[in-house]
Amino acid sequence: MAKQSLPTAPFLKVASAPHMHCGTSIKGMMTTILLALLPAAVGAIYWYGMEAVRVMALSIATAVIVEALCSKIMEKEIRIDDFHAVVTGLLFAFILPAGAEWWLVVAGSAATMVLGKMLWGNFGGAPICAIAVGWAFCTVSWPLQMNIDATMLNTTLVNPLSQLKYFGMDAIADASMKEYLMGNQLGALGAVQVGALLLGGIALLVRKVITWEIPVATVAAVLIVGGIYYSIDPELYANPLFHLFTGSTMLAIFFLLPDFTSSPNTRGGKIVFGLMAGFLIILIRTYGQYPDGVLFAVLLANMITPLCDMIKPKPFGAR
Amino acid sequence: MNKNIFILTHGDTGAFETGSVPFEVRIPLNGHGKKSVKKKAEVYPGLLVADHKNAKIGDMHCGITGVVTEVSDSYVIVKAQDLAAPAEGEEPKPTSVDPVSLDALEGEELQAALKGLGVDIRPLIKRCELLIINALNPEPGITYAESMLVHAKGTINAGMEMLKRLSPATRSVVALPTGSNAAFDDSDIAFINPQYPNSLNELVVANITGKESMKGVNVIDLHTLYNLGAVAESGMPLTHTVVCVEGKNIVAAIGTPVGALLKDASIEVADGDTVIMGGPMRGVATGDLNKGISKETNALFVMPSGATAPISDHACFSCGACIQHCPSRIQPNMISRYVEFNELDFCRQENISACMECGLCTYYCPARRPMLQYIRLGKHKIALEEAQVTACALQVEE
Ligand code: SF4
Ligand code: SF4
């Protein structure tokens, strides 16, 4: 060694370039999402009271514990401190009826975590939105308990989507978009806090946690396709705004479809993906068996994600 | 998040300071096989210390007066000290070298003379039709470009003139940041929006020619031009260069230890800090404050420990941030995964070679994946593989 000519040479950290970072982190993004979900959670408590608190708390707790257990079994680093499990648990609670039985919440939340995240390795592997997986699992296993109209008998709220499905346009003739926005509709406990979710979604866009492509494309498709049906026969088909402001549409637009792992990454892919999802929402609601087909639309749209990802720009200098 | 840090114009930051003479220089060698000095030899500014057998790679010279204390394959260390006075009856010892007159030389002779003066001529004589001088600050935080065009204009002009004598190009364009009023004789001027990554050679070329291709174009950056200009102006060997030390531009002897430059600029380095040679986006971190700067070192930065979250082995969660910011329009997320699993064919398919190594993907990744490093590794592995394939093909032919 050369003789140490400098006074006490400090121990330097070496790292690979670049040596700067924008400061975002998974934890930061998840915290922002949680904050964006807060208004909807408050809305859920306002409309459904302690029942909603019970479902949300149980779902979050289950999700976190299941993730920790799975990580342990899989001998992986436990990363519950990135809050992804909390977000997933809360989002799963949002699509349950407020009156869901405790075992349904626990089983569903556990299935969401296991089938929708941990089975694929860890955060980052799942090709399908975890919440949609959990929803499908529960809907197929316990259709009655998942049915909002069947579980929420002691409420004065009405479910506009079931009304439309079973009683036709007349039943929703006096629908008020403003009331829907405020959450005055029967549905999954968080998903129907439409105005609050819209607020949260805009916050996510502003904080750049999600990009504009998927929400804008989905909204556009819902409005266009819904508008086509509406213009064919306004007596038979609902106003496109009705579709936007009822059921889980808003939740899907801002929180489920832009879910990082299951959505495409390229701009073109995102737009096609969003258009497809919006198209499917209207299609399922119009012809499907489920009054609120949004979660199905999310599942199906996730199926074409790999195709959407093939829409990519020409690389620099490529011919 | 903050776009302002990527702005590349800093205005005129004043004339360059001349750095104080360091206590030692550690002249980095890069395959310079023939050392012309021995341990304990007395050296003075401009003296040749090592020679490269390739005729296109510049030789290395000493920048200070002192005594050689160590000679190895990768560096020559010279300790600064006054030389002993000549003994009675001896000739006075030389203290400097004579300038070489370059004016009359041409072609190969000129190239050989420049090589002997320490200029790497290979990039300068590259075959091309269009010559582009990239006069933007190369990276965020580096501030020498505009001052150089004001306070060292003579050197730059000398460099330009020399470059035109060397390069076969028929046309030259100087790429300046928008709003600059520097003027050049016989060269066109193009304005580039001074925002990183627009300073990258590939993007400068695309901006000027409108074509995303480097064919027939040679890009020389300002730092190289300054080095060439310094030699062309004086006819003296290249012993000093400009280094931007955290925004302060200093003319320092080649081989000056990083630690000495930082100390001169009163920048404290604590345990756990990262010292970067080069810019903060593409530079290389050094683990040794004694390491000497090379001809190409254009900047020094210190990143305090804890300024950024450490790199992680987290899986990509497909947020898309890297794709959104990649100027090459490739998919760093997929490519870095392929490199992780050594799937080089997929890397090729995803156009790994289009990456211009700007570092933005890694800058924006919330999962802190070291993507630029993966991509560099992938490119390296592909190059190795291709070299092997060529070697095999040659054997078969025999
Ligand atoms: S370093 Fe990353 S962002 Fe920059 S060109 Fe390469 S892949 Fe794209
Ligand atoms: S920024 Fe990081 S996490 Fe996001 S897609 Fe790119 S590699 Fe994956």
Overview in brief:
The complex is a heterodimer of chains A (319) and B (398). By secondary structure, chain A is mainly alpha-helical.
Q: What would you say this structure looks like, in words?
A:
The complex is a heterodimer of chains A (319) and B (398). In chain A, 59% of the residues lie in helices and 0% in strands. The mean pLDDT of chain A is 89. With 319 residues, chain A is mainly alpha-helical. Chain A has two domains: 26-146, no CATH class; 155-308, no CATH class. Chain B is an alpha/beta fold and 398 residues long. Chain B has four domains: 3-11 and 118-232, NADH-ubiquinone oxidoreductase 51kDa subunit (Rossmann fold, 3-Layer(aba) Sandwich), CATH 3.40.50.11540; 22-98, Beta Barrel (OB fold (Dihydrolipoamide Acetyltransferase, E2P)), CATH 2.40.50; 239-303, Roll (Ubiquitin-like (UB roll)); 321-397. Helices cover 28% and strands 19% of the residues of chain B. Chain B has eleven helices and 17 strands. In chain B, the strands form four sheets. In chain B, strands 1-14-13-17-15-16 form a six-stranded mixed β-sheet, sandwiched between helices. Chain B has a four-stranded antiparallel β-sheet with strand order 2-8-7-4, with no helix packed on it. In chain B, α3 (153-166) packs across α5 (222-234) and α8 (332-340) packs across α11 (371-397). Chains A and B meet through α1 of A and β15, β16, α7 and α10 of B. The structure holds iron/sulfur cluster (SF4) (2 copies). One iron/sulfur cluster (SF4) is lined by residues 325-328, 330, 332, 355-361, 371-372, 375 of chain B.
Number of helices of chain B: 11
What is the rounded Rg of chain A?
A: 22 Å
Overall tally of domains of chain A? 2
Q: How many β-strand runs of chain A?
A: 0
Record the SSE blueprint.
The complex is a heterodimer of chains A (319) and B (398).
Chain A: H1 26-48, H2 50-73, H3 84-94, H4 102-116, H5 130-141, H6 143-146, H7 148-151, H8 160-167, H9 177-182, H10 194-206, H11 213-232, H12 240-245, H13 249-256, H14 267-287, H15 294-303, H16 305-308
Helix pairs in contact in A: 1-2, 1-3, 1-10, 2-3, 2-4, 3-4, 3-5, 4-5, 5-15, 10-13, 11-14, 14-15
Chain B: E1 17-18, E2 24-28, E3 34-35, E4 42-43, E5 48-51, E6 60-61, E7 66-71, E8 75-80, H1 107-116, E9 130-134, H2 144-151, H3 153-166, E10 171-177, E11 188-192, H4 201-209, E12 217-221, H5 222-234, E13 240-245, E14 248-253, H6 258-264, E15 274-277, E16 284-286, E17 299-303, H7 321-325, H8 332-340, H9 344-349, H10 360-364, H11 371-397
Parallel strand pairs in B: 1-14, 9-10, 9-12, 10-11, 13-17
Antiparallel strand pairs in B: 2-8, 3-5, 4-7, 5-6, 7-8, 13-14, 15-16, 15-17
Bound molecules: iron/sulfur cluster (SF4) (2 copies).
